[in-house]
Amino acid sequence: MKKTTLLLLLSLLPPSMLAQQRFLLRGRIVDATNDTPVGFATTALLRDSTAVSAVAADAQGRFELSADAAGEYRLQVSMVGYHPETQPVALSAATTDAGTIRLRQGVAIDQVTVTIQKPLITADAEKTTYSVEDDPQAASSTLEEILRKVPQLTVDAEGNVKLNGQSDFKVLVNGRSSAMFKNFKDVIRSMPASQIRKIEVITEPSMKYDAEGSGGIINIITARKEFDGYNGSLNCNTGLDSRRNYGGASLTLQKGKFAASLQGFFYCMNNENRPYTSESRQENYASEQQRYRTSSSSGHARGDNEYVTLNLSYQPDTLNLVTLEGSLWTGTWKNRSDSRIRMLDADERPTVEYATHDYSDYPFTGFQIGTNYERRFRKPEHTLTVSDMVETAPDNGYNIVAYDGVLDYPSSQLYKRQTSRSVTNTFQLDYCNPLTAHHSIEAGGKYIYRINKGYHNEIPWVDPVGFDPANTAKYDDLRQRQQIFALYFGYGLKLKKVSARAGLRMERTWNHADADNSTEGIYDYGNRLLNFIPYLSLTYKPRDGHNLSLSYTERLRRPSISMLSTYFDDSDPYNTSQGNPDLKASTTHTLSLKYNCFSPKWSGTVTLSGHLSNDGISKWTRVDDTGAAHSTYSNNVRSRTASARLSINFTPSEKFSFALNGQGGYHHYRLPEEEISTEEFTFDQNFNMNIALWKAATVSLGEGYNSGSANLGRKSGDYFYSYASLSQKFFKKKLQVSLNCYNPFTKYQTYSSSAQTPTYRSQSRSRNRSRQFSIGAYWRFGKQNVQVKRTRKTISNDDAMESGNKQGGGKQ
Questions:
Q1: Distance of CA 83 to CAs 108, 158, 237, Å?
Q2: β-strands 198-202, 350-376 pairing
Q3: CA neighbor of 189 nearest in space, from 273, 300, 268, 271
Q4: Partner residues linked to 354 by β-bridges
């Protein structure tokens, strides 16, 4: 009654007075099933079937429409893959809140007509998101090829990934840890990008994430949206001039309260016909007799891996959800290499010469199974989640190494066995409560119990017996037990233009290890750690589509079992290595300033960040007066990095788009007690362009440049790459066939690196065949956007650090 009276009074006012006032309608669009934002939906304000105003919502589903006069209107909202929604609205005040508009899903593939091109890149204070499903190249690319285009990530010529210039990062799949990604480099080369929905680069993880990983977190999301029905896909890709094949399949079914999703992929390669070569020269300052060391090598690799995952969900009502998920992965990698090493004195006369022949075989198998229960309350974001997960990752491997002495070096053969096994059980509790429209809290706890086992055994060849498995003259048997207890609490404030989040995470760690070593005997060691990890972010929104964010947090690095092992590998007396059982967790401070702006046609992000650590963990090498190199780990590395990053994405129409990513940074690493200091400026960029040629045909062109990277005592050289693909869709765009080329202008590529310490300096070069041609096909069927329902909070163990950079095995 009051509303009708007010509208009647407004209608009696002179038109000139009403013309001076504009009436705004604001609201937010979300998915009706899971209340996630539906970005870039089309909104229109209608009066008598005439559109008074129409705009596209922003990335968070927010919209604002305006009208010149008060009165009764209709609000119409539409989005690809959803049923359109229309509802009446009355504009009577200067600003009217339409509340939350919930869109229901349910559009079949052959009914889809794309009217708005969503941007590939979006960002907020915590993360940057790359929409793989909106990338035309995704159907014919591997995950590695897509990662090259993601802001804040760099992929070097060997497939090693860095986040913010750092190799210490964690990888999650749908918010959970997965031991399958322990060898990240191998997996991304084989995983089809068509199975990925989006990639989140979380550079400033909040208190809800485990504190491990100084670089940040890469969250690979394979989940799809859901409604009754089914969908699926098949894809394969084969090399035309190389023995590299990969493919995958997915199937999702949902009926009422039940849903199931099955995904899998395979990868196999053999580069016997494309061997790599390398050479190096090293000057040893501490030795006159072995002043120089030169080496030349060649080799090849072959291997395969397979992965399958099954997800089930049951939702008896809108307030309760139960999920069960499991994954299995298996495979093997085999490498063969031959090397020739020479030692020379100060006058460059040969003093030692020998050849090595190394054959390695590393099979692996692991699985993960977990369950989640989520309780939702009246408010959509008010949830309580309980999760439990069991994970095992056993690995077995061996090397057969033959040493052929040529000059003053004994000939021998060694059989080196290496086994490891990790079993982890994790229980987690998460609670989130939006107290009011402006205030929210989140809290939770986690308990991890982990057992790591590692065994090394080195068996010499003894005539006439050969390799005797009973020979335990040299071995190392390690058993590590680790318990981690964590609590976190966070508070969020959200105003019209300013929002903030603050929180604290406490992590208590107990480590204990028992070791049995052929030289050290039986001994044990351990430590207790207590860390408090703060998080603070502040975001200012001057207007819709523009955000300025400042955030600060700390990250931890815990040493892995291989870093702690005291096993002394001296199979080659001129190259020895050993772990360090005294390593403790290190802390990195991270500060980031980010500005981003978005619209339906273009997006841009500028980020300035800095990292500081005084107790970093790194491997280092010293050369003694005999010319022998000894490598181990230190906990006293001082690191300082600063970087600036820019990403731009422009899509003026469905027929053309381009993306540009670039970053430059300064890196300084120092180990004071060994007087090792390394500093370097780095730069990398990637440009990608997609052009529609004719109906359902697209050509994609791209190039990239990387100036190299820096680590303690070592720098890598620069390289350039380019790629192109042509794809054609058939049968109402359900089948896509593509021709792809990587480095079409460069048949072979040479990569260089250098090292400089007080005891030695070295230069090395490797040469790989880089030009590759392939053909691929991708077929999808059923309904679009079907997915097993997932809880808002799940287990994501990102607390265990691997030695090196977690990038996988040998040259491929």
A1: 11, 46, 35
A2: unpaired
A3: 268
A4: 341, 405
Q: From 235, 248, 220, 233, select the one nearest 109 (Cα to Cα).
A: 233
Tokens at 478, concatenated: 């390690």
- The dihedrals phi and psi of 451, each to the nearest 5 degrees, come to -120, 125
Q: Are 42 and 54 in contact (CB under 8 A)?
A: yes
Enter the pTM of the model: 0.74
Q: Residue 72: what are its φ and ψ, rounded to 5°?
A: -90, 130
* Joined tokens for residue 159: 């497939």
Contacts for 787 with CB less than 8 Å, ≥ 6 apart: 223, 224, 225, 226, 252, 254, 259, 261
Q: H or E element: which one contains 279?
A: strand 276-284
Among residues 391, 380, 460, which one has the least CA distance to residue 422? 391
How far CA 252 is from CA of 190, 191, 194, in Å, comes to 22, 18, 14
Residue in 769, 762, 755 with CA at minimum distance from that of residue 299: 769
Please state, in angstroms and rounded to a whole number, the distance separating the CA atoms of residues 514 and 478: 6
Residue 16 burial (C-beta neighbours within 10 Å; 0-12, 13-18, 19+)? exposed
Give the model confidence (pLDDT) of 33-87 as tens digits: 767 788 778 888 887 666 778 787 877 788 888 887 888 888 989 886 677 888 8
Stretch 775-789: mean pLDDT, rounded? 68
- Expressed in angstroms, the distance from the first to the final Cα of the chain is 75
Of 302, 157, 141, 238, nearest to 748 (Cα)?
A: 157
